[in-house]
Amino acid sequence: MTAEVPGFGADVPRLPPPVTQRGAVGWLRQHLFRTWKDTLLTLVLGVVLGWLLYQLTLWTFTSARWGVITDNLRLFLIGLYPAQEAWRIWLCLTSLSLLAGATAGSRGGYARTIAIWLMAGQLTVAVLAVFSPMGVVAILALVANSILVLVAQMATRRHPVRSRWLTTAWLASVPLTMLLLHGIAAVGMPVVDPDLWGGLLLTFLLASISMVLSFPVGVLLALGRRSRLPAIRLLCTTFIEVVRGVPLVTLIFLADIMLPLFLPDGVDLDRVVRAIGAFTLFTAAYLAENVRGGLQAIPRGQIEAAQAIGLSGMQVDRFIVLPQALRAVIPANVGLFISLLKDTTLVVIVGLLDVLGIGRAVLAQPEWLGTSFEVYAFVAVVFFGLSYTMSHASYRLEAALGVGRR
Amino acid sequence: MSDELDPAPGAPIIVCQDVHKWFGELHVLRGIDLTVAHGEVLVIFGPSGSGKSTFIRTLNRLEEHQRGRIVVDGIELSSDVRNISAIRSEIGMVFQQFNLFPHLTVLENVTLGPIRVRGWTRDRAEAAARELLERVGIPEQAAKFPLQLSGGQQQRVAIARALAMQPRVMLFDEPTSALDPEMISEVLDVMQELATSGMTMLVVTHEMGFARAVADRLVFMDEGLIVEQGTPSQIFEAPEQERTKRFLAQILH
Q1: A126, A77 contact by CB (below 8 A)
Q2: Distance from CA of B116 to the nearest CA of A (A)
Q3: How confident is the model at residue B1 (pLDDT cuts 50, 70, 90)?
Q4: According to DSSP H, which parts of A108-198 are helical?
Q5: How far is CA B253 from CA A13, A24, B178, B248, in A?
Q6: Of the residues A153, B19, B120, B237, which has the fewest C-beta atoms closer than 10 A?
Q7: Distance between terminal CA atoms of chain A?
Q8: Contact, B218 vs B232, CB < 8 A?
């Protein structure tokens, strides 16, 4: 409240901040050519980087054999999934596009980021498919799906879908997608053995389903570890410590080899489900520790204030503690999910072929000898695209929730 | 508030008998006997570590007492869970550090209790909340988040949040100690208005001007005991205990 004496200090000028950057030339001079040493360093590095860029561009457009990607595009996308059943995958993508678009239109923010990347991803694949022997159906399906993302988004922007319906639809879409991909023998729909699912399809399923499942498990573990009941606390702590103390590879092996031994005869979980189980438990244990860190960061006074207005213990967790704790650990959890995405490449050890596994299989074909750089570059770009989508969406989510501001 | 339910002014609403509390080995409350009448405004003061905050926190069981009896509005405090929530919804509390929920808007802070504990509809809770925000003088801040407000405004929201539960008793734990000096009076004004409206209040504070103007009774605590109590004029002008005189001399200069 300095307004008590109007005009006080009026004779002392209010100065603009000192100017350190004057336009682009000023910036360059300040940062790149300040002394003769800086200038020399800038020139040498400039030449080296320019030469590298030139060589890379030259290789990309002249000597690289991108045919290894386009000719094998089907393998990279869906693995050994039978070609005549590929329509099921496009249909699953259609439902994903519809849901992502509707969520983006209704909620905006981070959902829009994901929708845009989903659209861009499908269009990119469609362009690649033009140069591949995949056929016109795949191209049309991918393009139609991309447009559907946009249409769904525009349609729901004016008439938003209620959050409850969106959540229900997303949750229902997981088992429905799995069922459609698997097929139902009873209605004459050929069953596709999950061992044949591969490529991007497998990577995407493993990562996304493990993420969705590990989140609630991890939160419950974190809460359980702080429980007042010693039995629950001990159980959760033991689980977290044991799972964190074991390499992921070991868990995947255990899930693949040991689990069937414990299951009764006739009950057979397929490889993909067992792998998802291993990834889910592994991620949940780490996520629980992230969330525990968030829970500890909530000041005691928050809990006391919530108790003082009469909220029960569960209400305090649900309305006061978890919303604040979970938003504080978004960056850590997104980092964990990105690790999970890349860790899915480990399924190669139990004989499943994800994008990377397909890449190695493709390289084993005699006609594509010597194209490992092309293949690994493609795989790297795929993983980067997926990871960057997640981290970009997380920035948007953090901004929307005001992380660090309130 | 709900006047038709209240007993006549003067009837006891809080009765404490021989209340003891230990933190580990430390004996922080050493036998507190206190009866608060309905509608009474009590100011509790004393040096830091005297147990005054701990004492008012035992009244809504943020701290458990380990010996003695506390009866609030006819309900005895025990470890029974239903009993605790019944007591807590009768008692509003305002904290030194405000403790507003930073992820909720001002309006959501105030309506959370009525909706989730009292089971009111959102419309009813919001209407009541807006009335309360009007009463504490910040109706225009309803849509903001707590950290966008000044300390004085935050504390007034905290008072509105406590009042939204329609409590029969309000506890204030050093409500102005964390405030910048120029914001203290806006909070004290709200508290004074509340006292005038007949609310039963227990206030831990060193604002002796407020105590003199508003309190019906002053309670001086030291070393986990009530040293002396009486009307403001008794305590300020003729304190009986040497300890009280010395402490008042220190804080009144």
Answers
A1: no
A2: 7
A3: very low
A4: 110-130, 136-158, 163-182
A5: 42, 63, 21, 8
A6: B237
A7: 24
A8: yes
* Residue whose structure tokens are 């993909």: A272
Asked whether the whole model's pTM tops 0.90, one would answer no
How high is the pLDDT of residue B125?
96
A5 sits in which H/E element: none
Q: Which of A193, A165, A7, A190 is nearest to A98 (CA)?
A: A165
Cβ atoms of A219 and A285 closer than 8 Å:
no
Cα(A41)–Cα(A97) distance, integer angstroms: 49
Mean pLDDT rounded to a whole number for chain A: 89
What Å distances lie between residue A267 and A139, A175, A261, A280, CA to CA? 39, 19, 10, 21
Q: What is the pLDDT of residues A360-405, one digit of tens each?
A: 999 999 999 889 999 999 999 999 999 999 998 888 888 888 755 5
For residue A395, count other CB atoms closer than 10 A to its CB: 15
CB contact under 8 A, B165 and A310: yes
Cβ neighbours of A310 in B, within 8 Å: 85, 88-89, 113, 117, 165
Which residues, at least 6 apart from A149, have a Cβ–Cβ distance to it below 8 Å? A97, A98, A100, A101, A104, A115, A118, A119, A122
Burial zone of B182 (CB within 10 Å; 0-12 exposed, 13-18 middle, 19+ buried): exposed
CA distance linking residue A26 with residue A22, whole number of Å: 5
3-state SS, residue B216? coil
Q: Name, in order, each residue with C-beta under 8 angstroms of A314's C-beta and a sequence gap of 6 or more.
A: none
CA-nearest of A166, A199, A167 to A89 is A199
pLDDT > 70: percent of chain B? 96
Please report the sign of the dihedral spanned by the C-alpha atoms of residue A61, residue A67, residue A68, residue A72. Answer: positive
pLDDT of residue A388: 93
A309 closest CB neighbour out of B81, B113, B145: B113
B243 to chain A, closest Cα gap in Å: 32
Q: Radius of gyration over alpha carbons of chain A, in Å? A: 26
Beta strands in chain B (DSSP E): 12-23, 26-37, 41-45, 67-72, 75-76, 91-94, 169-173, 200-204, 217-222, 225-230
* Preferred mutation among B56, B90, B99 to probe A, highest tally of A CBs within 10 A: B99
Contact state of A402 with B162 under an 8 Å Cβ cutoff: no
Convert the pLDDT of each residue in B43-93 to its tens digit.
999 999 899 999 999 999 999 999 999 999 888 888 777 778 888 988 999
Q: Could you tell me which residues come within 8 angstroms of residue B18 by beta carbon, excluding any fewer than 6 positions away?
A: B31, B32, B33, B67, B68, B69
Pick from A304, A315, A324: CB nearest B103: A324
- Enumerate residues 6+ apart whose C-beta is below 8 A from A132: A70, A71, A73, A74
Bridge partners, B218 (sequence order): B43, B230
Task: Please list, in sequence order, all residues whose beta carbon lies within 8 angstroms of the beta carbon of residue B47, skipping any fewer than 6 positions away.
Answer: B222, B247
Going by pLDDT thresholds of 50, 70 and 90, the confidence category of residue A18 is low
CA dihedral B35, B37, B41, B44 (to 10 degrees): 0
A56 close to A47: Cβ distance less than 8 angstroms: no
Q: Which two tokens stand for residue A399?
A: 């901004």
The confidence band for A270, taking pLDDT boundaries of 50, 70 and 90, is confident
**Per-residue model confidence (pLDDT) at position B79:** 78
Q: Is the pLDDT of residue A206 over 70?
A: yes
